[in-house]
Amino acid sequence: MEKEYNYSVRDLPKSERPREKLRDKGASNVSSSELLAIILGKGVKGESVLLTVQKMILHFGGLHNLLEASLNDLMKIRGIGLAKACQLVASFELSRRLINEDLEKEKSRVGRNAITKPEEIIKYIKPEIEDFSKENFFVVSFDVRNRVIGIDKISKGTLSASLVHPRETFESAIRKHAAQIIVAHNHPSGDPEPSEDDIRITKRLYEAGKIMGIELMDHIVITKESYCSLKDKNVF
Length: 236
What we know:
Helix content is about 45%, strand content about 15%. It is α+β, with helices and mostly antiparallel strands. Strands 2-1-3-4-5 form a 5-stranded mixed β-sheet, sandwiched between helices. Strand 4 and strand 5 form a beta hairpin. The N terminus is likely disordered.
C-alpha cells in the first residue's frame, strides 16, 4: 500500500510559496488563501498551512463569513489555537478600521453633494451592518438639497411594524431638521425582494412622513450581493 504523503508549503517551488510570491509579485497578486496563510505562518503536524486555510474558508462558507467569525469560532478549527485566532481577528479588525476611516472621509465628502441613486446610499450603509445574519434598520436624513446630514441605526432584529415605528424612525430626522429621509434594512436570507411586512411598513412611514412634512424618498432592501428599491417598484 502506497504511503500517504502530506505536502507542506516547502514542497512548492520557491516562486509559488506565499511569502516569496508576495515579496516578488506584490500583495495584490497573492490570493486571499495565500494572504491568510502568511498571517497564520504555519499549519499543524501533517497539514500545510494552505490546507488549514482552505478548510477554514470552507467551514465558514466563504471569506465574508470568515471575516465576521469570533475568536471562539475560529478556535474550533483544527490547528487554530488562541495565538493564531488572535492574529486573524486582529488582522480583520485592522481592515475594518481602515475601511471605516475611508468611509468617514467619504461621508464628509458626500455631505457636500446631492444623492440621487440608491447605489450611492448603499455603499455607506453596507459597512455599518456588522452582522448580516440579523436585520438592521437605518434612517438616512437629507437636507433640502438632497445632501446627507446623518445616518442612524434605528433597530437590530426582526423587522416588524412594532419595531419600526414612525416615532423612532422620524425622531433622528426631526432632531437633524431633515427635509426628507431614505430608510434601509438588510435581508439575512440574501433575497432582496420586499416582504409583505416591508411593503406595509413602507406605506405607513410614507403616510407618516406626509403628516410631519418629511418626505420618505425610498426604502432600500440590502443584501450582501444586491439590493431592491421599493420606490423603483412603485410601492408608494
